[in-house]
Amino acid sequence: MSNVDRIWTAALVVIGDEILSGRTHDRNIAQIASWLQVQGIRLAEVRVVADLEDAIIGAVDTLRAQHDYLFTTGGIGPTHDDITVDAVAKALGVSVIVHPEARAILEDYYSTRGGLNEGRLRMARAPAGADLIPNPMSGAPGLKIGNVYLMAGVPAITAGMLEGLTGTLEGGLPLISETIGCWVAESEVADLLGCTERAHEGCQIGSYPFFREGRVGANFVVRSTRRDALDACIAVLITGLKALGKDCTPGGI
Amino acid sequence: MSNVDRIWTAALVVIGDEILSGRTHDRNIAQIASWLQVQGIRLAEVRVVADLEDAIIGAVDTLRAQHDYLFTTGGIGPTHDDITVDAVAKALGVSVIVHPEARAILEDYYSTRGGLNEGRLRMARAPAGADLIPNPMSGAPGLKIGNVYLMAGVPAITAGMLEGLTGTLEGGLPLISETIGCWVAESEVADLLGCTERAHEGCQIGSYPFFREGRVGANFVVRSTRRDALDACIAVLITGLKALGKDCTPGGI
Q1: Would you call A54 an interface residue with chain B, using a CB distance cutoff of 8 Å?
Q2: A105 membership: H or E segment, kind and range
Q3: What domains can be seen in chain A, in order of their start residue?
Q4: Residue of A37, A80, A103, A193 to mutate, interface with B, max B Cβ within 10 Å
Q5: Rounded to an integer, what distance in angstroms lies between the CA atom of residue A238 and that of residue A236?
Q6: Considering the entire predicted model, what is its pTM?
Q7: Can you tell me the ipTM of this complex?
Q8: How many CB atoms lie within 10 A of CB A239?
């Protein structure tokens, strides 16, 4: 396998009782997944765990060994339920320090906002050896140690951190995709989808059914790292659907 | 520990490349989490895995042993990428059969919709020994085998299946919660939150910051299985915030 064909993978640990209680709809999974694709890295697994040290340690320990990169979201704020830094440090077998650069950033950020206090200083804590990930929105930085990236729970803050990381992670060829939508029950065309995928090496076809306005339809997403293979697969799929009397909507419905 | 104090837990495996690619925002995590809370069952972990047999088997095998219940969403449709039934059967060491009752349901459902075909018949396949979970929306049933519940990927279909399961799972006392919102930086009140939680056994306080209209605020969510403990904790928290000159909004902002 040449280096360009190597598939780089990442995992994500979403840390937060608010997701597991159903109170908050997670938005970081889709955000980080989309961003990783552009970096040529595939999100291979996500785990959502509670604000419990053992749960975080277990997930971090397993996933950082299995993947090129591990991201976490949540639990790096100033309150008592923010325990990600401690858990990750334990998982990595390092101590927790007050990061001088992070402390300076927070001192500056809070100089016009009431000053540093004990809670705010918590956000300068880091696993020993970590580098900072700048947070253009609200001061408190993310952290990078080894292949582990600690991001914020608030999606807008994580978005700012990701922007700064763009282009800095080694990846492979980005996975590209094309979608075609069709007002058809996917069960009518299951055979066509399976045969078309098998006939196009390096392409995967996903079928995503929906119900809208009382009608059934589906979007078919073809993914590949190769543009030529992708285009050929899409063309065969459209021809096959037309042969069954179904019109397609490029880009999806 | 009396039986009433026992904490029942569930895990969820979300199966689908479309979530890991960022194309689709998951809505089943929050939906199932909220439903479980009402049943007195705590969602303790979620894993999102790709449409790969080994990934599904690994997650199902681990989580069904660790929790009272395991739910899966996705991968029970008619197309080639729907492999949940096969993977769960392998994880449980049972064969895959065509479930006669499921087949009858599908024959009836598709009698006015073009009849059964090979793809549609895939949706009658089940791990041997499974019971059906009725699907009031689109025929193809969910499946229950042991403590494993196989649900649809389309959130509206899973909603219908959950409705039918309401009240049928043994659980403990439902976790209840109260939220108060406050236009305050959580870092200003981190101490208050930690102290208040420690002073109220059986209560957890979660702090969920946000940025809106250019201002920082946070919602504080107190969770407990006991109404009296919850009320006492909320009262102390409101008093503490008022002492710091902060007004609270019951129900959250």
Answers
A1: no
A2: helix A100-110
A3: 3-165 (3.40.980.10), 176-250 (3.30.70.260)
A4: A80
A5: 6
A6: 0.90
A7: 0.89
A8: 12
